[in-house]
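Cross-check.
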Amino acid sequence: MKLVGIDIGGTKILIVLIDSSGILKKRIEIPTTDATPLIVCGRILEQLKLLGSFESIGIGSAGDIDNKNGILRYSPNLYKWKNVKLKQYFEKKLTVPTVVDNDANCAAYGSYIVDGKKKYKNFITVTLGTGIGGGIIINGKLFRGSTGSAGEIGHMTINPDGPKCSCGNRGCLEAYIGAKGIIKTAAKMGLKNITPAIIADKARKGNRQAIMVYKKFSEYLAVGIGNLINIFNPDMLTFSGGVSNNWDLIEKRFFDELKKRAFKTPLEHIKIIKSKNPENLGAIGAALLSKR
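Predicted model, tokenized:
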């Protein structure tokens, strides 16, 4: 059985073809661009037609998702995408069952299977990328909340007087450690016209300002994760997304700060790791969700 997973991000779209156990068979990456949803979906469709036959499609995207009807209601990183009927579009074009969910829910389900092997029943995945997302599994089941909006970890307020976030709120975790937040922190330290990847590269080469950027990143991340540990008391937490590839710059300061933020007993219990497949996890999880 072959399954397709699609992860629609703020800057790129990842399409994967996997088998039913989650083994990656093919990977395609295309830019999201600033086009309308219809044009972008058409580009995705072109790629899907090159994959041959498959049983189902799973789609993950950042933002507020109507999982039941397969509608992307709103995404802070895709400002033209409002009430986009993704399920209807792809089922009509390809006559293949399609499910749509929040990208972090997809990543959490993928990590629950790939990283946790279904052994850790209370499980959280935090996605670190253009935005900051979260997926929550309670007693082995995805927790979506009453309206399907649960898990917006990036929009947890950590400073009510903080910088304005893309969602319209102030002081969100994402405003500090999303891609734009990283760039703003770097600019304050004299590193201008630069990307998070270049900042990470400079930090590894010993640049003091770049090292400080990731020090601040780690501290803010620990504040958010400490809140999650104290509220949910999970068995396992994983990090995914492109920025998690900088775990070597984050890990030590993160755990030092986390010890100040989380209660001792749940902190000693939880297992925290970077996912084994962080960049593909959202798409793989979406594909796995499509077969449920």
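The chain is about 40% helix and 25% strand. Residues 208-232 form the longest helix (25 residues). Passed to J.P. for a second look.
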